[in-house]
Every structure is written in C-alpha cells, then in structure tokens.
C-alpha cells in the first residue's frame, strides 16, 4: 500500500442522534434521518470515540511458549461522547431512560427509571464530515452502560458523559459505516 494523504480522515464536525430501538434506519450516508431521531446537540470538542474491544481465548501447548491457537470469544463495541447541552432528550439519554413531568407551569421534574424498568434501548446515528466526504456510523441497537458523573463547578461547563454499548440484532449487522469516501471505491 502506498502512502496517500487523501486517505487521511479528520472529523471536522459532526452530530450524534438517537431514536427508540426499532426506528427505521438510514441506508445511505446522506439519507435524511427518520423523524423519531433526536440530535443530541453540542458535544465537547473531543467529538466521539468509537471502539472495538475483542476478547480472545489463547490456547497454548506443551511444546510452545506462544499460543498455538486463538479463539475470539466476545467482541465489545462502544461509542462514547460527552454532551454539553442539558435538555429533556440529553438527560434521558445520559441516564438510560426515565421521563420528565411538568409539576406546574415552568416547573419540571426528572423521574429516573423505576426499579421494575430496564435501560432504554436506542438506535444511534453518528455523522461527521471531512471536506466533501461524509461518514455515518449506524448502530441499530445500543444502550447506556457506564456511570454518569457530572461535575458542577463555578469554572467549567457541566457536561454529561455517555457510553453506549452495541447490542446484537438477530439477522442484522451490529453496526455499519456508510460513506462517500473515494478511498473505499471497491468493486460491487
């Protein structure tokens, strides 16, 4: 492979949107999102982090110090971001569910998930641009899995860190990447 600077990607700007699990998903990098998707607004300038963490079982043999076989036993994939905006959608997303109720005019109460409820499963679409190239990660099913710790100080924004773990959907990809990036010009 030759060195090619046109294959470098800088996620100059982007957005993260969530919808209830089961919402119709986009099939192209530039398809308009279903109206059920809500954009989560500003994130810190760290953008988002997308990762894959394989778990492998290593089998050794009496005759070798190195593994003689490796088996993939699990594959954890997650997306993390830090939300800067505080509103009904971002609070419910960060805490994995719950609801807001209006107590009286101008007075609202967030009610977290009850002991009998499970965390909300969501679909996620993360979009970003690099010049004219567009990228989109589509995750059909995910849920919040890490703790939310909010620091309330006089000198910093109060932000909402969010970690989504990808869940399998029977008969479907766990996630996919959609793009118009010319470096992916593969034969059909």
What value does the Rg take, in angstroms? 20 Å
Distance between the termini: 21 Å
Task: Please tally the β strands and state the result.
Answer: 10
* Content-based structural category: mainly beta
- How many domains comprise the coordinates? 1
Mean pLDDT score = 93
Q: What sort of overall outline do the alpha carbons produce when their principal axes are compared?
A: globular
Q: Biggest sheet, in brief?
A: 8 strands, antiparallel
Residue share in β-strands: over 45%
Write the H/E string, N to C. EEEEHEEEEEE
The total of helices stands at 1
Instruction: Give the low-pLDDT segments.
Output: none
Helical residue percent band: under 10%
Task: Give structural attributes.
mainly beta, eight-stranded antiparallel sheet, 10 strands, single chain, two-stranded antiparallel ribbon, 188 residues, 1 helix
Describe the structure.
The chain is mostly beta strands and about 190 residues long. The chain contains one helix and ten strands; from the N terminus they run ββββαββββββ. The protein has one helix at about 90-95, and strands at about 15-20, 40, 45-60, 65-85, 100-105, 105-110, 120-130, 135-145, 160-165, 175-180. The strands form two sheets. Strands 1, 2, 3, 4, 7, 8, 9 and 10 form an eight-stranded antiparallel beta sheet that branches. Strands 5-6 form a two-stranded antiparallel ribbon.
